[in-house]
Amino acid sequence: MAAEKLALAKAITESLRTAMENDPKVIVMGEDVGKLGGVFRVTDGLQKDFGERRVIDTPLAESGIVGTAIGLALRGYRPVVEIQFDGFVFPAYDQIVTQLAKMHARALGKIKLPVVVRIPYGGGIGAVEHHSESPEALFAHVAGLKVVSPSNASDAYWMMQQAIQSDDPVIFFEPKRRYWDRAEVERESIPGPLHEARVVREGTDVSLVAYGPMVKTCLEAAEAAAAEGKSVEVVDLRSMSPIDFDTVQATTEKTGRLVVVHEAPVFLGTGAEIAARITERSFYHLEAPVLRVGGYHVPYPPARLEDEYLPGLDRVLDAVDRSLAY
Q: Which residues is 245 bridged to in the sheet?
């Protein structure tokens, strides 16, 4: 099949469709995922094609949704759960971190829970409170969970396939403000392992590492920096647990400078772990300290202020300049 240009949201839809066609044990469940097709229409048409027993509209009860998915996984199913918005996941946090993440170890490897928890996350859409959170570090901190986020339609398609096929639970963060960004999706060849970072732009002066919604911002920053004669390498991390530190180390030692960018608050964010680990691994290769760019350590602000809160082109370029100034 030839490559097809799809929006990121549509790529996830097609990935779910493919998984459901290939395996009758794949079940989609969540609030409004059936008749409505999800608030972002990511599951649009799936209930019509696969029926109400495989695409299940659930009550507004996130803890119950995840708890039910755990029970289904124990019975041999592969549930794909949608949490409608990032800020709605916390009623299910107990189920995810004390049951879903721990069952494999608790059973000494005899029980597997192949559950995918889909979470639209991040800001940039002018939403109200509890609709623009970036809680990925909370889940990456929990042993037993895989945590990933695609930045483009091709990765969205293939990473969802790989997440569903995983025997371990996967928290799948979908960058909602990139849902409508379009890219070529080749359905015949897997682009790489689920947890492998990828260099998406070559450079020699400084490395930018990002994931999910900030990859596009970093690519735009690299383009702007190039106009000023600066060569910026951009790495799409793709996975926050596990993290592909080898790729991050390689780009750091190539350029001598590293800036980590994410929407989530800088304080105790994913960038903190990357900065600490790369400082340990590559101390004698660094020409500057590892810098971090992210949100502020405050509750996510009202929509009219989110442009001030979110890391944008200027804040990324400022970090590039500060790194090059050492």
A: none
Q: How far is CA 290 from the centre of its chain?
A: 22
Catalytic residue among 131, 195, 262, 285: 131
Rounded CA-CA distance 143/234 in Å is 28
Secondary structure letter of residue 151 according to DSSP = S
**Helix or strand or coil: residue 274?**
helix
Residue 109 is encoded by which pair of tokens? Answer: 């490897």
Instruction: Specify the length of the chain in residues.
Output: 326
pLDDT at position 189 is: 79
Structure tokens at 118: 């889909």
- Identify the CA nearest to 16 among candidates 48, 56, 44, 58: 44
Closest to 92 in 3D by CA, of 139, 43, 56: 139
Contact 216, 200 (CB under 8 A): no
Q: How many CB atoms lie within 10 A of CB 128?
A: 10
Tokens (6 digits) for 299: 């509750």
Q: What is the pLDDT of residue 112?
A: 96
What's the rounded Cα separation, in Å, for the pair 101 and 178?
28
pLDDT band at 174 (very low <50, low <70, confident <90, very high): very high
Q: What pTM did the predictor assign? A: 0.97
Phi-psi region of 53 (alpha: psi -120 to 50; beta: other; left: phi over 0): alpha
The answer to whether 195 is a known catalytic residue is no
Distance of alpha carbon 173 from alpha carbon 163, whole angstroms: 11
| Average predicted confidence (pLDDT) for the chain | 97
CB 139 within 8 A of CB 145: yes
Single out the residue of 313, 306, 314 nearest to residue 123, CA to CA: 306
Cis status, amide bond into 191, omega within 30 of 0:
no
